[in-house]
Amino acid sequence: MAAAIDPQALQARIASVNVLVRSHAGEIELVGVAGDGRVTVRYTGMCAGCDYRPVTTAGTVEPALLDVAGVTSVAVAGPRISEAACARIGATLDQTAARERAVRIVRQIEHDNRIALP
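Below the sequence we write its predicted structure tokens.
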């Protein structure tokens, strides 16, 4: 069984991710949290219909949310791409260490804004 997710820590992380996503005139919002640690979010604003959502998800949103204790997976409500396409995007991002950079940036935003995660 997955560890319980601290709702405040999750909301703080979403707020920090939104600092980045707002630069594209959008945001993510929490749709739900399952007992197994699966978190579902939805894109809003200009990001809702953006063709680059899968890249933003794989490169920024997913790694930042998976960094929160208890989060085991991240799903996005709305249109999806195939698992094979997700895997290709992930492999490309791993080659450039983009996911690790995204987590470092989000943690720095939290630090700068005094948003502390347990």
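Residues 22 and 45 are 9 Å apart (CA to CA).
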